[in-house]
Every structure is written in C-alpha cells, then in structure tokens.
Amino acid sequence: MRLPAEWERQSGVMLTWPDETTPWYELEKVQECYGRIISAILRFEKVLLVTADIKAVTKRLTELGVDTSKIQFQECPINDTCIPVVAAKAFRGGHKGAGPVGVDAAPFQDERTHIHAHHLVGECPVKEYLLGDSVVEIRGGKPYRLVPLPKPEQMFLDDYPLPASYANFLITNGAVLVPGSGSELDEVARTRLQEVFPDREVIVIDCRPLLSGHGGLHCVTMQYPEGWLE
After folding, report:
1. Which residues of 193-223 are buried (b: 16+ CB within 10 A; e: fewer)?
2. Whole-number Cα distances in Å, 2 to 87, 88, 95, 212
3. Nearest of 225, 117, 109, 224 to residue 179 by alpha carbon
4. Residue 230 pLDDT exceeds 80
5. CA distance linking residue 214 with residue 164, whole number of Å
6. pLDDT of the residue at 159
7. Mean pLDDT for the chain?
8. b/e string for 63-99 if b means 16 or more Cβ within 10 A?
9. What's the CA gap between 168 and 178, in Å, rounded?
10. Distance between CA atoms of 136 and 144, rounded to whole angstroms?
11. pTM, to two decimals
12. How far apart are CA 171 and CA 114, in angstroms?
C-alpha cells in the first residue's frame, strides 16, 4: 500500500467521533468542534466517521446542523479518537487495504515548500534543529522555501499551557482547514497559507476545544488516497 502525500487527490477523510468513552475535557464543546470540521470537509470530499453508536452520533450531528446523509459511517468499539489508535479497527471493518505503508513526504506542501511554526525554528539552522539530516536524505540536499507561520497566543486550561499551532492544518481536495485560536493571528496564518495554496480555499475553524486533549485538527483526521472510499 502506498500512502500518497496529503496534497494529492483524496477519496475522503476519516475521523473518530468523541463520546463518553473517550478522554476529552468538555465533551460537548469538542463535539461541536467536530461538527464544524466535518461540515467543512463535506464541502469538498467524503467523510468516513468511526463511532461506537451510529444512531446516537447521527442524532447529535443533526442537532449540530450537519448533513449526515453525506457521511459514511463505520461502527466499532472505541476508547480514543487519536487516528493512529483507531485506524486499524476501521481497516478491519471492511475497508480496502492492510499491510505495509509507504508515506510520501507528508509534512511538505509540495516538493520544494516546507511550512513550519515560526517559533519552533528560531535562530537555529533548520537542517540541524528541525529536521536533522532528513532534508538532505529526502531531497538530495536541495534547499526548501520555508514559510513561517505565527505562534498563536498562549492559551491555558486552568493554569496549564495548551499546545496551539497553526501548523496543525489539514489539506483536502479543494481546501486547507486551519485550526483557529480566536485571535487576530488567525487571519495572518490564513493569508500566509492562502499564498502557499492558491488553488485551495483556506478556511479557519475554531478548534480551541481540541487543545484540552493535547490535539489539533490534523491530529483527529486521516486522509484516504483516491480510490479507497466508495
């Protein structure tokens, strides 16, 4: 099995619905966030939604104004919504494919552009600090065009700092979905990403509820290559 780069054509995006068995803080707000993400994805491609209870999640999504007729459901037991944890269960549920996976440069927007969170790089050489020797190994030492993204304003849960980042975006067939922080920096990040993805609509989605679980928009999604989802 070959897992193409994220900017290549997709057949859909998988998410796992958060319910009472999953370790989320303020579950109702997290579900509302999932509703926003799912609605945005459905504008451009299919959604495969893994859940322990199709009837219950259909009711909840309908309350949130999501058109569930366009969602492909997969029912199976869950206890987490992190995609690596649940992906194997979804594969065993009857969808195509299992076995070795080859990944094509997923962190890159294209062969020569790498998008990074500006505050992670600082004054250190990117090759040594961010990617080690992988820059040379992946592209034969050719330089990349780096696109800095702003650091979101620090957010807290009680006194605990939360890991917000605009780099946790999701590329879909016709759009780039960016996790918003509710500040003016959202538009700065959106504008910079729009320059990188001129042929896609860049959409900011308020994903602050996901931060309480140390997750983000990209963490709770998984793209499927073209031809995988019927």
Report:
1. beebbeebebbbbbbbbbbbbebbbbbbbbb
2. 16, 16, 15, 33
3. 117
4. no
5. 9
6. 85
7. 80
8. ebebebeebebbeeebeebebeebeeebeeeebeeee
9. 7
10. 11
11. 0.79
12. 14
Length of the chain: 230
- pLDDT tens digits for 82-136? 764 444 444 444 444 333 333 444 444 555 555 544 433 333 344 444 444 444 3
Task: Kindly report, residue by residue over 176-225, the tens digit of the pLDDT.
Answer: 999 999 999 999 999 999 999 999 999 999 999 999 888 889 999 999 99
Better-scored residue on pLDDT, 33 or 99: 33
Structure-block tokens of residue 186: 């959202």
Return the number of other C-beta atoms located less than 10 Å from residue 57's C-beta.
23
